[in-house]
Amino acid sequence: MAEYECKICGYIYSEENGCEEKGVAPGTKWADVPDDFECPLCGAGKEDFELK
């Protein structure tokens, strides 16, 4: 499964782990993460992430 890194703060979104604090279940592909997703550490938008 892929990982995506926040270009602002370095937070890693792992498709395997999801982001439960933002309501994204483990196993959720990046393409299926809501467009209004925000980094749980710095609040950056989904557009500020890139494939690691």
Automatic annotation (TrEMBL):
Obligatory cofactor(s): Fe(3+)
Any one of the GO BP annotations: alkane catabolic process
Cofactor mode of binding and number, as noted: Binds 1 Fe(3+) ion per subunit.
Residues involved in Fe cation binding: C6, C9, C39, C42
PROSITE patterns: RUBREDOXIN_LIKE
Gene3D superfamilies, per database record: 2.20.28.10
Alphabetic keyword roster: Electron transport, Iron, Metal-binding, Transport
Pfam families with a match to the protein in the record: Rubredoxin (PF00301)
Annotated GO MF terms: electron transfer activity; iron ion binding
Rubredoxin-like domain mapped to chain residues: 1-52
Recorded family membership: Belongs to the rubredoxin family.
Protein known as: Rubredoxin
Organism: Sinanaerobacter chloroacetimidivorans
